[in-house]
Amino acid sequence: MYKIALIGATGSVGNAILRVIDAYPDVFSLHSAAAYSNGEKLIRICKKFGTPKAYLFSPQMGSFKKNDDIPDITVRFGPESLEEMVCDPEVDKVVFASSGVTSLKAIILALDNEKEVLIANKECLIVGGKWIKEHVKYDNQLLPLDSEHNAIWQCLGKSCKPFGVKRMFITASGGPFLNYPLDALPRVTPKDALKHPVWQMGSKITIDSATMMNKGLEVIEASILFDIPIDRIEGIIHPESKIHGGVEFVDGSMQLAVFNPDMFLPALSALSYPQRLDVPVEESPLGFGTLTLERIDPKRFPCYFIALEAARKGEACRAILVGADEEAVNLFIEGKISFGQIPELIEKALDSYSGGEPKSLDDASDLVNVGKKLVKKQVK
Ligand code: NDP
Ligand code: MG
């Protein structure tokens, strides 16, 4: 029985992890669960899974108060509680399914405490990847949950080591605006952008998928996870969403990973590693019909190219990119800027940064806030 500590239990990826734990009660148990501030939902999850340990790590407690209704659950509060959670000697696998960069130090602590770490959180990898990787002690101590990276990991024979790899690619469905009239694109509403044709995800990543920033972030994420230069990884549009990632080897052969577009499968394959568990699938995920692969159009999806350019400049611009994008997406969701302004604001934020490279993880984390401020300043 594997004991799982789940950070981000109340979110969309958290839900995929819970579905796996629920489907295989003899293999996994939810040892502890954490959310940022949504105490009500977190307690519902803990009750359902019989989990005695709940953690809410927002510095503010929000509206949630511990009450007598939950005598069997211990709730701990504040950012330090997260560190306690990931170091618990009873835990086997720690899952990072939270958003933002709040969990950066906890990831390193979990690795140092010999835990197997499953990661969906791309912001932490992009901002802190350089430091996180120094703490990974063996292949597969850090396992990718993001579907495209999980696909590549499967193509590499469930390994993060790119032996004999020439190039990698990850796919994108194209989101809601793949065929939308180009001249009307700058004026689409948050409601339009939140209608993803394939995936049900949190709102930030759904907007990032509509702008294709998500694919840019994922190329950076892949280069960190698999130690391969950015320029040997390509994002490719594949509207059927059957192939999720692929690897081309130096001898000209290729491996592609095909599965249904549901985070259940990446969650299952990473959680059950090194085993493979049986899933009752009715139809082959490949199915029949046409499989389309297209290059990403820079006019329609400038954010993809902005992300790659920022990544080539170094660690500082990666952190600025993460902060600037988060701020721009929030402003768009709040109706304060247009869809067309998202790439403009992010590009200007990156261009206006004149500081140096971060010397530590704390420096890198601070630069995320600099990125947010550089966007806010333009909107005032
Ligand atoms: P959601 O918005 O659905 O969930 C976010 C989770 O993180 C919630 O548990 C939330 O807690 C917590 N959270 C919110 N704010 C913060 C914060 N400031 N610091 C730490 N935790 C916070 O997001 P998703 O599940 O969609 O995405 C989570 C991560 O996984 C992101 O990094 C995303 O890019 C990545 N990812 C998502 C995929 C998907 O299919 N959704 C696929 C691959 C990767 P609370 O409820 O208390 O606010
Ligand atoms: Mg993905």
Automatic annotation (TrEMBL):
Residues 260-366 form the DXP reductoisomerase C-terminal domain. GO terms for biological process: isopentenyl diphosphate biosynthetic process, methylerythritol 4-phosphate pathway involved in terpenoid biosynthetic process. It comes from the Bacteria. Keywords: Isomerase, Isoprene biosynthesis, Magnesium, Manganese, Metal-binding, NADP, Oxidoreductase. Its EC number is 1.1.1.267. Mn(2+) binds at residues 146, 148, 218. Pathway: Isoprenoid biosynthesis; isopentenyl diphosphate biosynthesis via DXP pathway; isopentenyl diphosphate from 1-deoxy-D-xylulose 5-phosphate: step 1/6. GO terms for molecular function: 1-deoxy-D-xylulose-5-phosphate reductoisomerase activity; isomerase activity; manganese ion binding; NADPH binding. Pfam families: DXP_redisom_C, DXP_reductoisom, DXPR_C. Residues 142-226 form the 1-deoxy-D-xylulose 5-phosphate reductoisomerase C-terminal domain. Its cofactor is Mg(2+); Mn(2+). Residues 4-129 form the 1-deoxy-D-xylulose 5-phosphate reductoisomerase N-terminal domain. NADPH binds at residues 10-13, 38, 121, 123, 202. It catalyses: 2-C-methyl-D-erythritol 4-phosphate + NADP(+) = 1-deoxy-D-xylulose 5-phosphate + NADPH + H(+). The keyword Magnesium applies. 1-deoxy-D-xylulose 5-phosphate binds at residues 122, 147-148, 173, 196, 209, 214-215, 218. The keyword Transferase does not apply. Belongs to the DXR family. Catalyzes the NADPH-dependent rearrangement and reduction of 1-deoxy-D-xylulose-5-phosphate (DXP) to 2-C-methyl-D-erythritol 4-phosphate (MEP). This is 1-deoxy-D-xylulose 5-phosphate reductoisomerase. It comes from Thermovirga lienii (strain ATCC BAA-1197 / DSM 17291 / Cas60314). The gene is dxr.
